[in-house]
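The records we work with from here on pair a chain with its fold. A complete example follows; check for yourself that the lines match position by position.
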Amino acid sequence: MVIISVIVAEDLVKTFGEFVAVDGISFMVEEGEVFGFLGPNGAGKTTAMKMIQCVSPKTSGKLEVFGMDVNTHQSEIKRFLGIVPQETNLDPDFSVYENMMVYSRYFDIGRTDARKVTDELLDFVQLDEKKNVNIEQLSGGMKRRLILARALINSPRLLILDEPTVGLDPQARHLIWDKLRSLRDKNVTIVLTTHYLDEAAQLCNKLVIMDHGRILEEGSPQEIVKNNIGTDIVEVENGPEVKVCLDDMTADYEIIGDIVQVYTDDPQQVTSHLLRECMLGKITARTATLEDVFLKLTGRKLRE
């Protein structure tokens, strides 16, 4: 099986005056992967996505999409892209069907073919019964599904999604997840950003966690969790004797307000030791998640 690199970045830099938004990052996205950019506000992930989309030129370094430089082959690259922006930018003056048909003209798709593809895509996102409905009459979930359908009208080889399920209820989120998985199964390469860490864990084959313009971690969700935390977290109420007890057993832990989190691959051993040797109060154990890693690496302070 030949592995094709859809995106290759090496020492990629993007500056705005004196501000460095992306600071020498390197990564690779292979064909058929779902690749995620995670990070707090201002981490540089959206800037990286804009460079991939050829809407913001790179300052230095290498960034190739389908083997073409993003600064010199914008038109050629854009032919292969489907874009799902974070904002809802559908035309409110048109119906669902008309939005799809008008968008098809940007790709010189003939009217007959555009009608056929539009019908197929509206059925794919379960909006075929809403085809003649005005945009303002759609729910938020329906609008997001329509934006996804619109992004697929040119049969893109690379689908780029910025917060694809932001603001949606659980049913709508899971429907979009199902559609993205089916696209992945058809070997469509997907790059996304999301603040929903469970979404990244569910969808991504590989992801990077960014902060201050740099990549902190890269790998599969499972690898990143295991390498940074372990498989489980034991939580115990904070108290003066807790730190002493944990230091005696050389535990890897973090104090978070009234709670101490102990990172471990053997929660039973940690729990037994704490109960037997330290005589502590309430102790709970749970599976470690990508959100735990995210907060450990990027901190818990709010970002504007």
The mean pLDDT is 92. The domain at 230-287 is CATH 3.30.70.260 (Alpha-Beta Plaits). The first strand starts at residue 5 and ends at 16. The CA atoms of residues 67 and 240 lie 58 Å apart.
